[in-house]
Write a structure and sequence with these properties.
PRTase_dom, Double zinc ribbon domain-containing protein, six-stranded mixed beta sheet, PRTase-like, 237 residues, Rossmann fold, ComF/GntX_DNA_util-trans
Length: 237
């Protein structure tokens, strides 16, 4: 049933994208670009050229391990800085269902960081789950849509069953950094412990302070999974 619903949701999202006029996802100007952005907004996006360590917030200029924090660090591969026009595009993707931009973000990340991500020997991509009630209200999980786009470009499987959300909590956009840490505590549970305990890369749309992905990593670690990295569309405060 879940697979059938997922397929139906994908068809509905595709139909919505086709029905929408060809407007820039960030500024609303007319554009026929398959990226979903006009030329002006594409140029204005503040892209990240290097992965960064979520523990020390420093860029990693070479290799796949933070030279300061070692193998215990979590490496973040993000497309760009969470400011406009990227911030507005993420909001349109997340809250308005403008999913066509997921392919562009995935294409750019695969081109820029594909070799480094492959060096982590990942077995599967795991999208950060939404609480079931929030996913039902939204109609989709934006992290899962993004993970699907990434998986096809990085040749990696997606598993949305390993990690589930058991606590709803408040939207992080309305909370301080300390409140976010408290809000996300105990939010996840691992239910698919029978699969091979291998490297897992988490996928989310936005990583700010990193509390959500750290909590997810902690739960996966307790179940025997190794989580060396996370991929996101945007990163910022």
């Amino acid at each position: 049933m879940a697979g059938a619903w997922s397929g139906l949701s994908e068809l509905l999202r595709g139909a919505v994208d086709l029905a929408l006029p060809p407007l820039c996802t960030a500024c609303g100007e007319y554009t026929e670009s398959p990226t979903g952005f006009c030329e002006s907004c594409i140029k204005r996006i503040d892209r990240y050229d290097y992965p960064m360590c979520l523990q020390c917030e420093q860029p990693i200029f070479s290799g796949i391990v933070c030279p300061q924090c070692g193998e215990e660090a979590m490496v973040l591969y993000a497309f760009g800085n969470y400011v406009d026009p990227l911030k507005e595009a993420v909001h349109q993707f997340k809250f308005r269902g403008v999913t066509r931009v997921a392919g562009y973000f995935a294409e750019e990340i695969a081109a820029r960081f594909g070799a480094e991500i492959g060096g982590l020997a990942p077995a599967v991509l795991v999208p950060i789950p939404l609480h079931p009630s929030r996913e039902h209200a939204r109609g989709f999980n934006q992290a899962e849509v993004f993970a699907e786009a990434l998986g096809s470009r990085l040749n990696l499987a997606i598993n949305s069953e390993i990690l589930i959300r058991i606590k709803k909590g408040k939207p992080h956009s309305r909370l301080s950094d300390n409140a976010r840490a408290r809000n996300i505590r105990g939010a996840f549970s691992v239910i698919a412990e029978e699969i091979s305990k291998d490297h897992v890369i988490l996928v989310d749309d936005v990583v700010t302070g990193g509390h959500t992905v750290r909590e997810a990593r902690s739960e996966l670690g307790k179940a025997g999974f190794h989580v060396p990295a996370v991929i996101s569309i945007a990163h910022g405060r």
